[in-house]
């Protein structure tokens, strides 16, 4: 049986929502696919480390989860966390199991849709790391991000809202989206899995929103289906 290995707990709600997306995709296939999840919420915060390398490094915890998934003989490994893609090369170098990267899949999706200019909503760590910026530039897609004040709104939604299980002010959320749209964004990537969870919780189906975690789920199932 084919097995999807999931590096989870980054954070826990996003992991659950990712599994829901996978299960929804699996309804449309005749494949027998098992989900193997290592859900370790003690992994140090990725943004904290990216902003200050003196903070605890989450890479060792992530690699521990990779080794556990290898023992389970998974067919593929994926990780529903945009910020942790900062460690993509280190993860890929430590395993022979195919690793599906959420950032790479999202940018390839945008290129396939012939998008020329995109806004990205993400953690401060993801923005600072440049993981979206570098790949979007490589694909010749214009990259737009919130202002410092707008980023504070998005960070609060992620950490004080979704991660804390508290209500979200959708007006402020759309305030930032509309600002990016006014600057020329054809669409806005939800480049944080907590924002993907927000989309699912509030049933947001706006065409301007591109859900990176949904793209990751689709790409994961597609990869296994052609193997």
Number of helices: 11
Can you tell me the CATH class of the largest domain? Alpha Beta
Overall 3D shape? globular
- Uncertain runs: none
Number of domains: 2
Q: Total number of β-strand segments? A: 8
The neighbouring-strand order within the major sheet is: 2-1-3-4
- Radius of gyration, in Å, reads 17 Å
Helix-strand pattern, N to C?
EHEHHEHEHEHHEHHEHEH
Question: Please, what is the average pLDDT?
Answer: 95
CATH architecture of the largest domain: 3-Layer(aba) Sandwich
Q: Give the termini distance in whole angstroms.
A: 12 Å
Q: In which range does the helix fraction lie?
A: 40-55%
Class derived from helix and strand content: alpha/beta
CATH topology of the largest domain: Rossmann fold
Biggest beta-sheet profile: 4 strands, parallel
What portion of residues belong to β-strands?
A: 5-15%
Description of the structure:
Helix 5 (102-112) crosses helix 11 and helix 8 (148-162) runs antiparallel to helix 9. It contains 11 helices and 8 strands. Strand 7, helix 10 (193-201) and strand 8 (209-211) form a beta-alpha-beta unit. It is α/β, with parallel strands linked by helices and 227 residues long. A 4-stranded parallel beta sheet has the order 2-1-3-4, sandwiched between helices. It has a 4-stranded parallel beta sheet with strand order 6-5-7-8, with helices on both faces. The chain has helices at 12-26, 46-51, 59-71, 88-93, 102-112, 124-129, 131-138, 148-162, 170-182, 193-201, 212-225; strands at 2-8, 33-39, 76-78, 99-100, 117-121, 142-144, 187-190, 209-211. It has 2 domains: 2-101 and 215-225, Rossmann fold (3-Layer(aba) Sandwich); 103-212, Rossmann fold.
């Amino acid at each position: 049986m084919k097995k999807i290995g999931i590096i989870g707990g980054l954070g826990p709600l996003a992991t659950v929502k990712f599994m829901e997306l996978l299960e929804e995709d699996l309804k449309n296939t005749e494949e027998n696919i098992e989900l193997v999840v290592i859900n370790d919420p003690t992994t140090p915060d990725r943004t904290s480390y990216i902003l200050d390398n003196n903070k605890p490094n989450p890479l060792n915890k992530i690699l521990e989860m990779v080794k556990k998934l290898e023992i389970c003989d998974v067919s593929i490994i994926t990780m529903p966390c945009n910020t942790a893609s900062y460690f993509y090369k280190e993860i890929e170098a430590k395993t022979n199991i195919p690793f599906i990267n959420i950032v790479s899949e999202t940018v390839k999706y945008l290129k396939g849709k012939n998008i020329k200019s995109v806004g990205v909503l993400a953690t401060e760590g993801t923005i600072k790391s440049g993981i979206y910026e570098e790949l979007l530039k490589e694909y010749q897609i214009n990259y737009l991000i919130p202002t410092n004040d707008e980023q504070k709104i998005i960070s609060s939604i992620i950490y004080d809202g979704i991660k804390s299980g508290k209500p979200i002010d959708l007006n402020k959320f759309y305030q930032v989206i509309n600002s990016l749209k006014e600057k020329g964004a054809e669409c806005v990537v939800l480049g944080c899995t907590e924002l993907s969870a927000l989309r699912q919780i509030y049933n947001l189906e706006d065409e301007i929103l591109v859900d990176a975690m949904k793209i990751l789920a689709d790409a994961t199932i597609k990869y296994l289906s052609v193997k």
